Amino acid sequence: MEDQTTSVHTLLQVKVAAKVWLADGIAGYELSPVSGDALPAFEAGAHIDLHVPGGPVRQYSLYELSGEDGRYRIGVLRDPNSRGGSVKLLDDVQAGDTLTISAPRNHFALHSAANDRSILFAGGIGITPIFCMAQQLAGEQRPFELHYCGRTLSGMAFVDRLQQAQSGGESNIHVHVDDGAPDQQLDARSAIGAPSADRHLYVCGPAGFMDHILATARELGWDEKHLHREYFAAATPVESSSDDAPFEIEIASSGKVITVSTAQSAAQALLEAGFDVPLSCEQGVCGTCMTKVLAGVPEHRDLYLTDDERDRNDAFMPCCSRSKTSRLTLDL
């Protein structure tokens, strides 16, 4: 839940109160306010935009509900394919440093009905929002099941806490390790089970893992309204193609027409024309730049919109998507 008094575009100054290692290659950053004001409230599934010093803006899920200390906590994986985000953050940012972040935003919130049953799937670093969801569901005494998958135990954050819960009798928590015994491997069909009106599935992790979970759920008859996911990154960077055709953007408020060439994104064309387009991931993952479409048919290339939302053709991500029609009219 976004705090109602703080815009998601508000920039906040925070201090790195602590930097801890959560697993091999994964650091946890605990962030506290620089001023005396409390940080905005949030619910499970929320993330922040973090301005990496001297680098890009990246999104990180909040992995723990705010406790008495009021800190935000994020987990950062050292990505060997980093484009200047995670590696720079892990190597250069230490306890005591000051960072700029956004207020939390939440595109991955839990369904609110009290009698819903939730099934949570996490792959690798995708545990960060899922771990927070498990905390919130447990605190609200709502039924859930958690499946956490990873390659090795040493590379899985929070695994000790989850295994302690398992040994303490929590039969709804399951840890699956690729190099572990065969009887603990994930059986996706069995874990997902048959759909029902009160069951919701949430998944986060690498694209291949998420695609497998979602495809299996669809095969079992689940509908899209009960499937919820959050991608951390596109499988491949979004790049312009020689097959891309130019198209026009009409600004509804002024009638101004902007041409988007084959060599640029719609967001780039809008920025060059003087329009303030909020950008963050630039891969169609985070939803930051989502723009309302009033006329025309977008060519969706994002990972954020659901199939139903794409079929409506009333929104698109200018950072990566293009147009099937010669012109799009945008609500700008």
From TrEMBL:
SUPFAM superfamilies: 2Fe-2S ferredoxin-like (SSF54292), Ferredoxin reductase-like, C-terminal NADP-linked domain (SSF52343), Riboflavin synthase domain-like (SSF63380)
TM annotation in the entry: none
Keywords of this entry: 2Fe-2S, Flavoprotein, Iron, Iron-sulfur, Metal-binding, Oxidoreductase
Residue ranges of every copy of the FAD-binding FR-type domain listed in the record: 9-111
Any coiled-coil regions, as ranges: none
GO molecular-function terms, A-Z: 2 iron, 2 sulfur cluster binding; metal ion binding; oxidoreductase activity
Pfam families: Fer2, NAD_binding_1
Domain 2Fe-2S ferredoxin-type intervals: 247-332
Claim: Membrane is one of the keywords in the record: no
InterPro entries recorded: 2Fe-2S_ferredoxin-like_sf, 2Fe-2S_ferredoxin-type, 2Fe2S_fd_BS, Beta-grasp_dom_sf, FAD-bd_FR_type, FNR_nucleotide-bd, MRET, OxRdtase_FAD/NAD-bd
This protein's record includes keyword S-adenosyl-L-methionine: no
Protein name: Ferredoxin
Protein source organism: Paraburkholderia phymatum (strain DSM 17167 / CIP 108236 / LMG 21445 / STM815)
Lineage: Bacteria, Pseudomonadati, Pseudomonadota, Betaproteobacteria, Burkholderiales
